[in-house]
């Protein structure tokens, strides 16, 4: 029987069901060949010859296909209907050619949806592999290889700590870094707006904003200070007002077009909080289940039969009035018609989300989004009425405006409205019936509640003139009928995955199938981190971007990258020869590579140091030179590289001054280098920085004590805020907890190579929190050790009693410990006094026991000598082990 090859086993199962027993459907599991990750896989000197290698995991899949072809030499390649899918079919044919006899029938079929109708129709209309599409893939793959495998080694040699560079990923990273530098360079500008609460003669209230003063139109920054705002408030409050015009204009809002790949990723990010990768993964599973059309597309057009199905679904679910007189047609935005597939839509318009039989939450939510967007795209427009009311004083010295909007017919908004990344400022307030010529009376006490809330803030209030009162960012007249609000211009927002994809699409950088992998790659390489859905560049991401813009400006240029994408589209259309495009690119790119061969690391660092100076050395509050070392006061700060990779800021007086700090410190905190924290038992306790990071040390190295006690700063602790007490605690580790109730052997708590732990004899158990090392008691220690002994899979012991919730959250329980009952809350375990029975314990008593336990100082003076002695003995024994392990690491 003919052999049909698709990409995934899920798709194979669905298609085999549609085709029946006349075909054998097998999966290739994606690409079967790729370029080996080594030099020479693409040879520019041999007309860009490419050496392909079958992946180890793909050999068994290819063998299964070859074995099936022994019975029937009819091969049908049914991979995805895009450039990547065409490439997979080409690779399969190349890899399977030895198994194909002369005259074997090889066909290519594509379908935009995995439905019986679509698959049957595709099988009835086979074609040959589209070579221009394959050529475009070959060009893209060769370009990415040549950039990655030639530019990345330059980064490794000239910028220690950098991981890699990519043709599109580096441009995407530059977008994020450029935006961050815009934010840092941004200077906020103050301005004020004036508002009044007015009433009609009938008593209906509405809000209006001051739009003209002294007969002139007010622009945004015409009230830059509180003083000018106060004058405007007085001008409004002291005048009679009348409505000069009422204009009501009808308006319509048309629905958004159905989804293509980029808009789906943007909406999934906005509305569902899905990253691009998660969105495409869920969409892939929906596609393979036959629920939606192909999810990698530039197209927004819809098949005629799908349009009619959508109109039928709208009519059945919402009624005739929601169906427009004629179908809506959307113009395809794809530049290359060969890749202009249909939009992303449900395969069955009548399958509403509430009838979907899918258990995965992400797939259900994404299908709901796709169904609503598709249905809405064919619905009637929303109709509304927008009203603008102009109010002025008789002398025309002040003018105010009130705006409102009333939805007369919801139309497509009944189903769907696109999310926004930022407020567009559209005024949708409802206005009462207002007539031209009527009086507009100021309403007293209108802003009292807002004023009371502003008074609660600690921010200083502006000076208020006579007849007015002030709070933080707010001025009112004495009757609270007129208010002035303070505003500051805001920096451009950081990119989300949605806005980044949108910007890349606007610039023509990348293509739908690449967006998710690009955004994921720059996060995986720690060039960018995501915080509250916003993308923030890491220091190493900044360094890479500055390096590339300094020495390879053309190849991180937005225009150049977009032009190259256009050339790839022209190749896929058959208008350009792919090897000629590669030849032109390589000629210039190889020259740029040669230009960096003589660069020294110090030159690179100096150039980056200069470019990043505003970020690295922000102005000091005292007006001093930001480059002067804050420790020695003589050296100057500059960018340095660490032996272990990465970069930091250090003093030029090294090694006399060992001041260092990271390039960026969180929340403006500055991590400092060597300093004395204080004295303990006559020993100076100092904070130092070594090759493996910051540490604390007791005393100084002498002939009698060549290896003074040291302790590394735990991960999560900020060296800048470290004080003497915490340093002494670290140096006193391991800390004795007490003798085990069963065998009397000492239990200790400490911090080791693998983090915080408790130790009983030769048995160790990890602790989740570093701070618990200094507070853990016997009950908790025995519990952790017992859980480790049973690999943490034993059922938790049932509490004797549930006392309720702690005021700070979390349940308070009475537990039965190994040596008596105790109260448990979070990580605090407090032993019950002997005279208190578990069944008689009150919540108040429990709270007192918990507070007493949590408030105990972890560093007891009486226990300190024992702790020191315990710390010194193991330190002497472990020293050789540490040295040998360090040697092994160096060899590796």
Radius of gyration: 35 Å
Helix share bin: 25-40%
Gap between N and C termini: 54 Å
The average pLDDT is 86
Strand content: 15-25%
Domain Toprim: 1-114
Site (Interaction with DNA): 31, 140-141, 144, 156, 296, 525
Family: Belongs to the type IA topoisomerase family.
Biased composition (Basic residues): 858-876
Structure description:
The protein has 892 residues and is of the alpha+beta class. It contains 23 helices and 35 strands. The strands form nine sheets. Strands 9, 10, 11, 12, 13, 14, 15, 16, 17 and 18 form a ten-stranded antiparallel beta sheet that branches. Strand 22 (647-651) and strand 23 (660-661) form a beta hairpin. Helix 6 (169-185) crosses helix 14 (512-524). It is globular, with a radius of gyration of 35 Å. The relative contact order is 0.08. The model is unreliable at 334-339, 665-672 and 857-892 (pLDDT under 50). Monomer. It catalyses: ATP-independent breakage of single-stranded DNA, followed by passage and rejoining. Residues 697-716, 854-892 are annotated as: Disordered.
């Amino acid at each position: 029987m003919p052999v049909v090859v698709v990409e995934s086993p899920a798709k194979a199962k669905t298609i085999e069901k549609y085709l029946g027993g006349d075909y054998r459907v097998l999966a290739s599991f994606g690409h079967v060949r790729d370029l080996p990750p080594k030099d020479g896989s693409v040879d520019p000197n041999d007309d860009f010859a490419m050496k392909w290698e079958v992946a180890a995991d793909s050999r068994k899949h290819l063998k299964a296909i070859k074995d099936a072809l022994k019975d029937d030499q009819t091969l049908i390649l049914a991979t995805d209907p895009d450039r990547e899918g065409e490439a997979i079919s080409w690779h399969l044919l190349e890899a399977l050619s030895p198994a194909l006899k002369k005259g074997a029938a090889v066909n290519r079929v594509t379908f935009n949806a995995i439905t019986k109708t679509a698959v049957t129709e595709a099988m009835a209309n086979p074609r040959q592999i589209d070579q221009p599409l394959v050529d475009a893939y070959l060009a893209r793959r060769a370009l990415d290889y040549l950039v990655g495998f030639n530019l990345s080694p330059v980064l490794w040699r000239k910028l220690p700590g950098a991981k890699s560079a990519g043709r599109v990923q580096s441009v995407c990273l530059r977008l994020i870094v450029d935006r961050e530098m815009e934010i840092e360079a941004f200077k906020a500008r103050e301005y004020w707006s004036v508002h009044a609460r007015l009433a009609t003669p009938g008593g209906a209230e509405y809000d209006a904003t001051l739009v003209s003063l002294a007969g002139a139109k007010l622009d945004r920054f015409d009230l830059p200070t509180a003083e000018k705002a106060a004058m405007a408030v007085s001008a409004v409050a002291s005048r009679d007002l009348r409505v000069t015009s009422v204009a009501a204009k009808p308006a319509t809002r048309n629905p958004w077009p159905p989804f293509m790949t980029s808009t789906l990723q943007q909406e999934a990010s906005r509305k569902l909080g899905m990253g691009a990768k998660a969105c495409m993964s869920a969409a892939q599973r929906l596609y393979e289940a036959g629920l939606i059309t192909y999810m990698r597309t530039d197209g927004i057009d819809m098949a005629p039969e799908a349009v009619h199905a959508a109109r039928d679904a709208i009519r059945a679910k919402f009624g005739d009035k929601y169906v427009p007189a004629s179908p809506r047609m959307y113009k395809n935005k794809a530049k290359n018609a060969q890749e202009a597939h249909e939009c992303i839509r449900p395969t069955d318009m009548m399958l509403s989300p509430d009838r979907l039989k899918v258990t995965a939450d992400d797939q259900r939510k994404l299908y709901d989004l796709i169904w609503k967007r598709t249905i809405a795209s064919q619905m009637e427009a929303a109709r509304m009425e927008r009203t603008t009311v102009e109010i002025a004083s008789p002398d025309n010295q002040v003018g105010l405006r009130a705006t409102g909007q009333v939805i007369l017919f919801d139309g497509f908004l009944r189903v769907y409205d696109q999310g926004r990344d930022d407020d567009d400022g559209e005024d949708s307030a409802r206005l009462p019936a207002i007539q031209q010529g009527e009086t507009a009376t100021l309403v007293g006490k209108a802003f009292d509640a807002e004023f009371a809330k502003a008074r609660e803030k600690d921010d200083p209030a502006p000076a208020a003139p006579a007849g007015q009162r002030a709070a933080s960012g707010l001025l009112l007249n004495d009757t609270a009928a007129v208010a002035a609000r303070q505003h500051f211009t805001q920096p451009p927002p950081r990119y989300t995955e949605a806005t980044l994809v949108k910007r890349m699409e606007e610039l023509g950088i990348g293509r739908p199938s690449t967006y998710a992998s690009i955004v994921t790659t720059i996060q995986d390489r720690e060039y960018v981190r995501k915080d509250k859905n916003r993308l923030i560049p890491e220091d190493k991401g900044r360094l890479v971007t500055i390096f590339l813009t300094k020495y390879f400006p053309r190849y991180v240029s937005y225009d150049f990258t977009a032009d190259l994408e256009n050339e790839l589209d022209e190749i896929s259309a058959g208008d350009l020869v792919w090897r000629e495009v590669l030849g032109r690119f390589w000629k210039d790119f190889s020259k740029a590579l040669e230009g960096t061969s003589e660069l020294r690391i110090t030159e690179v660092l100096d150039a980056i140091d200069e470019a990043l100076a505003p970020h690295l050395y922000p102005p000091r509050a005292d007006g001093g030179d930001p480059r002067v070392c804050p420790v020695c006061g003589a050296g100057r700060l500059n960018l340095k590289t660490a032996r272990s990779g990465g970069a930091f800021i250090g003093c030029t007086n090294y090694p006399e001054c060992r001041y260092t700090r990271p390039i960026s410190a969180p929340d403006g905190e500055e991590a400092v280098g060597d300093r004395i924290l204080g004295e303990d038992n006559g020993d100076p306790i100092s904070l130092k920085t070594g090759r493996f990071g910051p540490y604390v040390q007791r005393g100084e190295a002498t002939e009698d004590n060549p290896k003074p006690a040291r302790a590394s700063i735990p991960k999560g602790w900020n060296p800048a805020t470290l004080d003497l007490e915490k340093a002494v605690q670290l140096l006193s580790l391991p800390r004795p907890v007490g003798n085990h109730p069963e065998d009397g052997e000492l239990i200790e708590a400490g911090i080791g190579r693998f983090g915080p732990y408790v130790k009983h004899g030769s048995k160790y158990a990890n602790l989740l929190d570093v701070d618990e090392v200094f507070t853990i008691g016997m009950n908790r220690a025995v519990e952790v050790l017992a859980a480790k002994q049973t690999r943490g899979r034993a059922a938790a012991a049932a509490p004797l009693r549930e006392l309720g919730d702690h005021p700070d959250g979390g349940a308070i329980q009475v537990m039965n410990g190994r040596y008596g009952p105790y109260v448990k809350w979070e990580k605090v375990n407090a032993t019950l006094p002997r005279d208190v029975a578990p069944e008689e314990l009150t919540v108040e008593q429990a709270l007192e026991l918990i507070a007493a336990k949590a408030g105990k100082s972890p560093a007891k003076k009486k226990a300190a000598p024992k702790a020191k002695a315990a710390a010194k003995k193991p330190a002497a024994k472990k020293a050789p082990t540490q040295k040998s392990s360090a040697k092994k690491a160096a060899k590796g």
